[in-house]
Specification:
- By secondary structure, the chain is of the alpha+beta class.
- 27% of the residues lie in helices and 16% in strands.
- The chain has 2 helices and 3 strands.
- A 3-stranded antiparallel beta sheet has the order 1-3-2.
- Helix 1 crosses helix 2 (17-25).
- The radius of gyration is 13 Å and the shape is globular.
- This is Helix-turn-helix domain-containing protein.
- Residues 3-44 form the Helix-turn-helix domain.
- Pfam families: HTH_17 (PF12728).
- It comes from Candidatus Eisenbergiella merdipullorum.
């Protein structure tokens, strides 16, 4: 299986590496494994939903 690092995932998903680290440590990215101090994320993983916002509202506050 191919893996990507926190930095690669952050560039693809448009969030900071700190958020990716949070997703991995909380188990929200299936298949992510920690090798020493580095998280490895499967390349085919999808970005987890942002739980700070309801699904009926976008980040800017507009209804979908």
């Amino acid at each position: 299986m191919d893996y990507m690092t926190l930095k690669e995932a952050s560039e693809i998903w448009g969030v900071t590496p700190r958020w990716i680290n949070y997703y991995c440590s909380s188990g929200r990215i299936p298949g992510a494994v920690k090798m020493g101090t580095v998280w490895l994320i499967p390349k085919n993983s999808q970005k987890p939903a942002d739980k700070r916002f309801k699904s009926t509202r976008s980040k800017e506050g507009e209804t979908k």
